[in-house]
Amino acid sequence: MSTAAPLTVRDLTVAYGDRPALWDVDLEIAPGRLTAIIGPNGAGKSTLLKAALELIPRVAGTVAFFGRPFTEVRSEIAYVPQRAAVDWDFPTNVLDVALMGTYPRLSWFRRPGPEARQRATDALARVGLSELKDRPIGALSGGQQQRVFLARALAQDAQLYLMDEPFAGVDQPTERTIVEVLRELRREGKSVIAVHHDLQTAPDYFDDAVLLNVQVFAHGPAAEVLAEDQVRHAYAARPVRLSFGQAH
Amino acid sequence: MWDYTLVSIALGSVALGLASGVMGSLAVLRRQALLGDTLAHATLPGMVIAFAATGQRTYPVLAVGAALAACLAALLVAWLRSRTRLDSGTILGTILSLWFGAGVWGLAYVGRWPTANKAGLDKFLFGQAAALTMEQSVVMMALSAIILAVVTLFSKELKVFIFDPVFAATIGLTERRMGVLFTLLLVLAILIGIPTVGVVLTSAMLVAPCLAARPFAHSLRALIALAGAIGLVCGLLGTWISASVPNLPTGPAIVLLLGVAVAIAQFRPRRPSGPAMQSSDEPATAAQPAGGKP
Fold first, then answer.
1. Dihedral, CA of residue A66, residue A71, residue A72 and residue A73, to nearest 10
2. Which residues contact B151 (CB under 8 A, 6 or more apart)?
3. Is A47's Cβ below 8 Å from some Cβ in B?
């Protein structure tokens, strides 16, 4: 499974109303690597992940995970949404959220057993939250919230991890923990694709980078892709209007 | 003094309290309390049509009509949400008033019919637990049991779907599957509320027990259990008060009691475990706006 490209995107176009968020995107992500998706605000970075996961409709294009449709390989893919997307006042605790990562491997009606609890507990240990496992999630800091989400994804034990802004608004210890977890995943032969907004840290944290602004501007080793003129070109690009066709 | 009427009423109140405590908690956590209100109002024309078509006003017959009208309203809400850019509140408000308006007009229309049977439909507006028959109570208990069984069976699926619908969709618990299940359960809970608290106040029955229980509950299970218990106690007490005070309908009595429970609960500090732990980073609420950017 690790030899096939974890994510292949062909001619993907996604629109909000008449404004394309993604235009004719072609991508083949290399296996076993940490890939950053980088681009300015409104570049369609989160949209790319969401469209690939069939969370929002596509206008055109195909997406394959490990050469197969998403619905066939669901359990091999773990998604870490932006943490602002949920209500953290929900009455539950840290361990419970991590346990949600074990649900995909449980059949309907089955409750998580000792094996699942062990997997969730291990995942919490990897992100340094063992001591907070009984804490209500409403009492967590932003960085801790992000780590709970990461633990939930680790508990899924997937082959590909898709993360939406995992470093957004987190504290230093959390940032270090996430970087460490990413490197562990790479050592285990897993692939990671993360939306990232920090050009400075991207070459340190990631092997590859995709420079995206509605279209793909560059894709390759992070240090090369993030060379200054490439980035300036991508960030200066105007969004495309469907009615006017492509315009840079 | 276990007379027959009293047992009926008590059974009905137990069913009502449990069902609305459970489903109301889920609806509030899913931020769909207003959907509950809309669907409750939407049952009225269904009951009128069921009565007009069959000439009967037994609870099972009316409940079928009520359920169909509520489901139709829910489908229309879902369709408008996906096809228009109207915000959710506008859509719900519109459907609520349209369906309810049609129901009130229907009530007036069948009220002019020369049948002896016509009286009694309007008691479903504000509820009348004192008139609860054993047949109604048994149906209410059965519906309540269905809700409890399904919520227990699908507890982990419902939990993850309500907490994080986006993540849930990626593991196969899509809006289409889980949203339909959730809405059907909500309609069942509303059907249970109609005979006792009535169409207009059913939403209070859904929202209030959860609000009263929330400050004391740190897990979903505890919240649901406590909300169910609060609904049950207020249901029984309200029914008793309404039976002893002349001209006080049951619905308002129960709802006012629930209001008192909610008010009292707010005096309890929200998190006894201490304030939110903000270590070195910014407060959690300062995160990026939800929903991501286009």
1. 50
2. B22, B23, B26, B158, B185, B224
3. yes
Tokens of residue B102, six digits: 């049609």
Over its length of 294 residues, how does chain B's per-residue pLDDT go in tens digits?
457 777 888 888 889 988 999 999 999 999 999 999 999 999 999 999 999 898 888 888 999 999 999 999 999 999 998 888 889 899 999 999 999 999 999 988 887 776 645 557 777 887 777 778 888 899 999 999 999 999 999 999 999 999 999 999 999 999 889 999 999 999 999 999 988 888 888 999 999 999 999 999 989 999 999 999 999 899 888 888 887 888 887 788 888 999 999 999 988 765 544 444 444 333 344 333 433 333
Tell me which residue range forms the domain holding B110: 4-271
Domain assignment of residue A1, yes or no: no
Using alpha carbons, list the distances in angstroms from residue A110 to B127, B155, B184, B198: 39, 10, 22, 37
A3 reaches B (C-beta below 8 A): no
Are the Cβ atoms of B170 and A85 closer than 8 angstroms? Answer: no
Query: Which of B171, B284, B287 is closest, CB to CB, to A104?
Result: B171
Task: Name the residue range of residue A203's domain.
Answer: 7-244
Which letter does DSSP use for residue A44 in this model? S
Which residue in B170, B181, B224 has the most chain A C-beta atoms within 10 A of its own C-beta, making it the best mutation to test that interface? Answer: B170
Residue B290 is assigned to a structural domain of this protein: no
Chain B residue with the nearest C-alpha to that of A136: B218
Is A126 within the bounds of a domain?
Answer: yes
ipTM (interface predicted TM) = 0.89
> What CATH number corresponds to the domain at position B114?
1.10.3470.10
**The residue type at A244:** F
The CATH number of residue A95's host domain is 3.40.50.300
Which A positions 182-241 lie with beta carbon below 8 A of chain B? none
What domain count does chain A have? 1
d(CA B37, CA B144) in angstroms, rounded, equals 19
Cross-chain CB nearest to A55 (options B169, B217, B271)? B169
DSSP B98-128: HHHHHHHHHHHHHHTS--GGGTTTTHHHH--
Is residue B113 one of the residues assigned to a domain? yes
Domain count across chain B? 1
A2 found inside a domain: no
Phi-psi region of A173 (alpha: psi -120 to 50; beta: other; left: phi over 0): alpha
Q: Is residue B294 part of a domain?
A: no
Contacts of B280 in chain A (CB under 8 A): 143, 171-173
Contact A82 B288 (CB under 8 A): yes
Establish if A102 belongs to a structural domain.
Answer: yes
Q: Which of residues 85-124 of A touch B (CB under 8 A)?
A: 85-88, 90-93, 96-97, 100, 103-104, 106, 108-109, 111-112
Distance CA A144, CA B271 (A): 18
